Each structure stands twice: as C-alpha cells, then as structure tokens.
Amino acid sequence: MSILIVGSTALDSIKTPTAENPRLLGGSASHASVAASFFSPVSLVGVVGEDFPKKYLQLYKSHKIDLAGLQILPGKTFHWAGEYEVNMNNRRTLLTELGVFETFNPTLPEAYRNLPYVLLANIAPALQHHVLDQMKKPKFVVADTMDLWLNIAMPDLLKLIKRVDGFVLNDSEASQLTQTDNVFAALKKIHKLGPKYVIIKKGSHGSILSGPTGIFICPAYPLGNVKDPTGAGDSFVGGMMGYLAKSKGSIDANIRAAMVHGSVTASFCCEGFGLTRTTKVKPADIQKRVKELEKMTRF
Ligand code: AMP
Fold this sequence. Notes:
The protein is α/β, with parallel strands linked by helices and 299 residues long. It has one domain: Ribokinase (UDP-N-acetylmuramoyl-L-alanine:D-glutamate ligase). The protein has 10 helices and 13 strands. The strands form 2 sheets. Strands 5-4-1-8-9-10-11-12-13 form a 9-stranded mixed β-sheet, with helices on both faces. Strands 3-2-6-7 form a 4-stranded mixed β-sheet. Helix 2 (54-62) links the parallel strand 4 (42-49) and strand 5 (65-73). It is globular. The structure holds adenosine monophosphate. Adenosine monophosphate binds next to strand 2 and helix 8. Residues 8, 10, 12, 26-28, 80, 96, 122-123, 148, 230-234 line the site of adenosine monophosphate (AMP).
C-alpha cells in the first residue's frame, strides 16, 4: 500500500570534521521518502524552488516516488546548513534559509487523500495539521518533529500529538517535552498526550517503542565509520512506515520488525553524505543487515 509523506524538501550544506559538502539533496521528506521507497510506493508532498537541481527530481523518480504533490515555485529551495563536532553526535545549525517554504501551503492532489498510511515528517506542526485535515480516513498516521517546534510552536504540536496514532521524537526532545530525563517515564507521559505508539530515538543507541504490546528495544546497526548522520532519524521513520505499509496483518504484529528495517535503512544513511549512500542501497543489502542484527540480538 502507498504512503503519503509530507515534510521538508531541502538543499543541505553539511560540514563534518573531515569534509564539507554543499547543497546536497536533503530534507526530512526526502530522506523519509527514499527510505520508505525500498518497501512501498511513496507519494511525496513538499515544495522546492526553481533552483532545485533536475538531477534531484530524477533521483526521486528513480525511486518511483510520486511527485504530483511536489510544488515547484518561483524562488529558492529551503536551504539548511549544519556542522558536526568531532564525536559526530553533536550538531549545530549554521543557517536556515526558508525560501519557498515561507509561504508553503500543502494542497494534496485528490488521489492522495485516500492513502492509508501517512507520515508527517519534520515540518512546522501547523503544516502537519493542514495535511492531516485533507486526509479522508487514514489507517495509520505517524508524526515526527524537532526541537525547534518544541521551542516555538508547542501549542500546535500538542494538538497534533493528540491526532496521531504514533509519535516519534529523539531523546533530548522527549526530555524537553516531558521535563524528565528518564526515557521510560517520558514514554508514559507522552502516551498521556494522546498517541497509542510512542517511539523515542536514541541515535547510535537505537530506539525504544512503547505501544499496546509493551516496550520494544530496537537496536541500531553497529557502524565503525559514520560519515554524516543527517537524516538518519527521517530514514528510520520512513523505512519503518514503508515496511508497515507493505506488511499484511495488524500494526502490533509488524511494528517491531518495521522498526528494525527502519533502523537498518538509517544505518546506510549514516555511511554517506546526504542521500548519496542510501540511494545506492539494494533491497538485498537491507535484508543482509536485518539478518545480522537478528543474530546479534537473539538470546
Ligand atoms: P535529522 O538529521 O533527522 O534531524 O534531519 C535533518 C534534516 O532536517 C535535514 O535534511 C534538513 O534539511 C531538515 N531540516 C533542518 N531544519 C529543518 C526545519 N526547520 N524544518 C524542516 N526540516 C528541517
């Protein structure tokens, strides 16, 4: 089944202690869509400017991502620049140029409104609401977010959390949202805000799900060399949603395996700048790492 993914479609300029790469294809929706496309067809909703390179449009198309919901407007594409510290965990934003994002009004093509799976990838919560308002009767809706929205759009975010089935955030955002540093206490508090499924991402330490069947600790695939973790969280949630959309049976029956597939997809993301590595992945590469993870964690 097909997934609707809305989020940022960006040009990312990324600096690490050893390299610098300007204007790569990035954005939460780009990472999530490519990751999801390994498992299910994706319909992308986003906006880019006239400066958006044709080769990036081609890259979406080569992953069979439907672009009827991608607006191309006069003006500049959203541009984000970030720099990583030596440990590759701490990152600071150097620049955010909103460009065409400033006036973005996501209007869904009619055919998108019946899609069963919806991923509201990181974008302003008001826009996530606007997309959800246009959906007819989605089966499973998951939202992701970032610290910026906790800082400047908390009322909108709290309303959104009430409307979704699943909410995904990283550990520092969870502690900011719940005022607790204990991840299990945070999961309980976030359930009280509405969602049935809460996932806290812990970077290279994996992620934790709390849902109707209890807690699941999902490992990260161990990597000896991280080149650029930008978009790993988006790849994780995109891969997870893609896997859920292609799986028969209930969400509860599939969500753990879906998280492991998301985790493996995110591992490829970290091995190259932007989407350079992820876009070269073959389904067999994913299956190989899933099997390895299974071996490493079974006892
Ligand atoms: P992550 O590494 O998972 O935090 O995601 C990084 C992606 O988020 C980059 O590709 C950026 O283009 C995108 N991004 C950065 N700032 C924003 C923002 N304010 N709104 C939406 N997306 C953003």
